[in-house]
Write a structure and sequence with these properties.
This protein has 5 domains: 92 residues, no CATH class; 158 residues, Rossmann fold; 96 residues, Immunoglobulins (Immunoglobulin-like, Sandwich); 232 residues, Rossmann fold (3-Layer(aba) Sandwich); 72 residues, Immunoglobulin-like. Helix 1 runs antiparallel to helix 2. Helix content is 21%, strand content 35%. Strand 3, helix 3 and strand 4 form a beta-alpha-beta unit. The chain has 14 helices and 36 strands. By secondary structure, the protein is an alpha/beta fold. The radius of gyration is 45 Å and the shape is elongated. An 8-stranded mixed β-sheet has the order 16-15-17-18-24-23-22-20. Strands 4-3-5-6-33 form a 5-stranded parallel β-sheet, with helices on both faces. A 5-stranded mixed β-sheet has the order 8-14-13-10-11, with no helix packed on it.
Length: 692
């Protein structure tokens, strides 16, 4: 029961003052001058005032509210090390049992660190979970918080948290843990393909070792060297970037006896390989309307260094002009095709024919260049079917098709073959999805026989139009029409000449994204995404080896012709190995070198400052001599807001004085006959005294 008094005046306060103040002054004057009946008049005035003020006794029935206690449980991946999970489960069960004995506490259990979100999987964010637990709780009702964690908390404030209640931390693990880890000190994001990249790394030990340790260096899953490092010192490292695109540099050290975990015995760096400018030699032979199409395209590509020669004056043309008066530059045949041929990534013959500009032996050099990994593109016109065709030179061994001597002059729409719909060079060309294709017609096709390699485009009468072939370690492409310039000029709406020509050139120069058979994997958040590029109808499932060594099979579904996709949700962070057929790929899921594994030693230091600032404390669940998972829980004591909240073997949680009003009983003092009788008695006494 809660009794209180309240005034409910019968008239407004201003009117009440207007009536009582003059009467009170008269009564006080009578008392001052000791007039007869002054006391009775004053008492009658008090009775009248009490009746007008209408005092009421209130009896409130209240239900006390509970203090809210947050029990924050760390379920991050570092808690899976050793006996920490067992210690956490035992402590949670024991605390729930002890807190259940106190009816004044509302216990909220929040498990943090097991979300699928990448941020929460890579960092232990207990104070964010604590804020969420108290979001709907008034400050006066917060009783305190208890955290069960290994102490590796990445969002701990430097001082007290934003609530006025004790914070207690119970630390899992043991204080004699041992661990060794490796990390990159300096790892550039980009590197030039084929060039050494300077990096630095450091091996760190909890025992402040200073001895040597072997570090295995792997690039894209293949071990390239073993470095000798000194523990605790920054060590230099040079790695050659093997290819364009994403490259994974991995450092690994062996696990030491008694080491807590080997999860952080690896360090990963993701380096994007960038090619130096590709060097292309373009030789234009027979002048034609589309002579500058290839030149304009290649000059517009910032990644290409173009050397372009146009044969305007063949050797047999003798007009008597002195050599010193010619403004034409002599074709440097020996320099280009003997001395520096290996420096070029691609050679293009655009409507070129043999006119003794190149010695016949040089065609052998070009064939050898292709066999050893070079790239050759023949943009053929009518001269390819003539007597001076380069197919009649030693270059014929590198060509994917021989001419029949026929030149078909007939309008046609270039179309993709069945292979072309799956091939990355022609797959999804803009306008290819309709019939007829949404691009302009061409009017000339060069006839060939016995085409080798892959026919990805067809011309008039379904004749081969675009051939792509491999010769030894190199590649050869052949475009059997000189009408591509019609697309560039916008004839009948034009066509995707830039898209097609650029893809052809980059496929010949072995751009990884344009490989027919390619397997790639990438981590997006906590999802591993797999992409399989193939010319086959069904590549089959992909096999995944997780960082923990588990094997998972993932089905690959067709996304578009020649492309199959698959994905898998994972809770593990680290390097995944993906295989499909003879192809393999590596992918890292989650942030590289996540803070969750940067330091896995359990510690009291990170939570000590915020806990002590609130009057709480930090203690270990296992004693310093314990080798197992036995835990010792402190006693729980309800305390007032001004009392101590922590002791050597107990922790305190604050109780609240807040309550909920359930009902109110009203008892008017001057209500009914009692009030009327008291008022009449006072007035009658005053009247009686005045009448004498």
């Amino acid at each position: 029961m809660n009794w209180s008094i309240s005034f409910e005046p019968l008239i407004s306060w201003p009117l009440l003052a207007l009536v009582l103040v003059p009467l009170a002054l008269l009564a006080l004057v009578g008392l001052w001058f000791r007039q007869r009946g002054g006391v009775l008049r004053f008492v009658a005035l008090l009775a009248l005032a009490a009746a007008l003020f209408n005092p009421v006794f209130l009896n409130e029935e209240r239900e006390p509210l509970k203090s809210v206690v947050a029990l924050i449980v760390d379920r991050s991946q570092s808690q899976d090390i050793g006996d920490r999970t067992k210690q956490t489960d035992e402590a949670l069960a024991g605390l729930q049992q002890r807190l259940g004995r106190f009816k004044q506490f509302d216990v909220r259990v929040v498990e943090a660190g097991k979300s699928d979100a990448a941020e929460e999987r890579t960092e232990t964010r207990l104070f964010g979970a604590l804020e969420g637990a108290f979001r709907d709780v008034p400050p006066s009702r917060i009783g305190g918080a208890i955290m069960i964690t290994d102490g590796e908390v990445h969002d701990a404030p430097p001082g007290a948290p934003d609530f006025n209640a004790p914070l207690h931390a119970l630390i899992t693990g043991n204080d004699h843990e041992k661990d060794r880890r490796i990390r990159f000190e300096n790892a550039p994001r980009f590197g030039i393909v084929g060039k050494p990249l300077d990096m630095t790394y450091r091996v760190i030990s909890t025992e402040n070792e200073a001895g040597p340790v072997d570090v295995r260096v792997s690039v894209n899953g293949e071990q390239v060297s073993v470095e000798h490092a000194t523990v605790g010192q920054a060590m230099p490292l040079q790695v050659t970037i093997p290819g364009a695109g994403r490259n994974i540099i991995e450092l690994a050290i062996d696990r030491e006896p008694g080491e807590l975990t080997d999860t952080n015995n690896r360090a990963i760096a993701l380096v994007d390989g960038i090619r130096e400018n590709l060097r292309v030699l373009l030789v234009s032979g027979e002048p034609h309307a589309g002579e500058r199409t290839w030149r304009n395209l290649l000059k517009s590509d910032a990644s290409v260094d173009l050397v372009h020669f146009t044969i305007l004056r063949p050797p047999e043309k003798q007009d008597g002009t002195p050599i010193n008066e010619l403004s034409l530059i002599a074709f440097p045949t020996r320099e280009l095709f003997v001395e520096k041929i290996k420096d070029f990534d691609l050679i293009i013959f655009d409507r070129y024919q043999h006119r003794d500009v190149l010695p016949i032996l040089y065609y052998d050099y070009i064939s050898e260049y292709v066999e050893k990994g070079g790239a050759l593109l023949i943009a053929a016109g009518p001269e390819y079917a003539g007597e001076a065709s380069i197919a009649r030179t030693p270059l014929m061994s590198a060509l994917p098709a021989m001419p029949t001597g026929e030149v078909v002059e007939k309008a046609f729409y270039p179309r993709l073959t069945d292979l072309g719909q799956r091939h990355p060079v022609t797959r999804g060309l803009d306008g290819s999805s309709t019939e007829p294709p949404h691009w302009s017609r061409w009017f000339r096709t060069i006839g060939v026989q016995n085409p080798q390699g892959e026919v990805v485009m067809k011309g008039a009468d379904n004749r081969p139009l675009l051939l792509l072939d491999r010769k030894g370690e190199g590649r050869v492409g052949m475009l059997l029409s000189d009408q591509g310039w019609l697309w560039a000029r916008g004839f009948e709406g034009g066509g995707p000449h830039v898209q097609l020509y650029r893809r052809i050139a980059h496929w010949l120069m072995k751009e990884p994204e344009l490989e027919e058979e390619r397997l790639t994997a990438d981590g997006r958040g906590m999802v591993l995404e797999i992409r399989r590029q193939t010319m086959a109808d069904d590549p089959g499932p992909a096999q995944i080896i997780t960082p923990s060594g588990k094997t998972v099979t993932v089905k690959l579904d067709k996304s578009e012709p020649g492309v199959f996709l698959g994905s898998v949700q994972t809770s593990e962070i680290g390097l995944f190995q993906v295989a499909n057929g003879d192809l393999t790929a590596l992918a890292h899921v989650g942030p590289v070198n996540a803070p969750e594994f940067a330091d896995v030693i359990s510690t009291e230091n990170r939570l000590k400052a915020p806990a002590e600032a609130t009057g709480g404390g930090v203690r270990r669940l296992a004693s310093s001599t314990a080798l197992g998972s036995d835990v010792t829980l402190p006693s729980i004591v309800p305390v007032r807001s001004s009392g101590e909240a922590s002791g050597s073997d107990w922790i305190g949680l604050r109780t609240t004085d807040d309550s909920v009003l359930k009902a109110v009983s009203r008892v008017p003092l001057f209500g009914g006959f009692l009030g009327l009788g008291l008022l009449l008695l006072a007035m009658g006494s005053m009247w009686y005294r005045e009448g004498r």
